Amino acid sequence: MDIYREIRRKKPECEMMVKSLFYNFIVILLRSHVIDIAKDEEKAMRSNIAEVKGYIDEHYAESLRLDALADIATLSKFHLIREFKNELGTSPMEYILGKRVTESKKLLAGTELSISNIAEAVGFSSGSYFSQRFRIVTGMSPMEFRRNSHAGF
User: Fold this and answer.
1) Which residues, 6+ apart, have CB-to-CB distance to 75 below 8 Å?
2) Cα separations in angstroms, 98 against 77, 90, 138
3) Considering the domain 2-89, what is its CATH architecture?
4) Structure pTM?
5) How far is residue 52's CA from residue 72's CA, in Å, rounded to a whole number?
6) Cβ atoms within 10 A of the Cβ of 72, count?
7) Mind listing the pLDDT tens digit for each residue in 55-88?
C-alpha cells in the first residue's frame, strides 16, 4: 500500500523510498520465514526425542547403545544427550536405567521370578549389576523391595 502511494506521487526521491519500503517488506518476509523454519526444526527435534523415548520404552530389555539411539534421532551423541535432557530432564542412559528399574519393580512385586531372571528380563547383563543399580536407584536391594511389596508396603 505504501509502495503504491509512493509510486503514484512521482516525486524525485520516490524511487529511493520505494526501494526502502521494498527492502523492509523483504526483511519482514525473511524474518517470519526464518522463525517458521526455527519452529519446524524445534518440532522435529522434539519429534526425534519422542521417537528415541518410544524406542527405549519398547526395547528397554535389549542392549541399547547411545550410538544406535543417536542414529534413530538423526543427531550426534552429544546433541542427543543434550536434547533428551532438555526434553525429559534426564540423559538417555539414565532414562533407560529408570525404565529398567521400574519394570523390574513390577516383576519383583508380581512374580516369583529369581533376581537373575528379572535382571535378564529387563536388560541387565547380570544379577549382581542389576542389584547394585537397583539399590542405587531405590535405596534397597531387589529382595528387600520384594519383601516389602509382599508385606503390603
Assistant:
1) 48, 83
2) 20, 10, 10
3) Orthogonal Bundle (1.10)
4) 0.70
5) 6
6) 14
7) 999 999 999 999 999 999 999 999 999 999 998 9
Residue with the three cell numbers 529408570? 98
Residue pair 129/142 in contact (Cβ under 8 Å)? The answer is: no
Question: 40-64 burial, b for 16+ CB within 10 Å, e for fewer?
Answer: eeeeebeebbeebbebbeeebeeeb
Distance CA 100, CA 57 (A): 9
Task: For residue 27, count CB atoms less than 10 angstroms from its CB and return exposed for 0-12, middle for 13-18, buried for 19 or more.
Answer: exposed
CATH of region 95-150? 1.10.10.60
Which residue ranges make up each domain of the chain?
2-89, 95-150
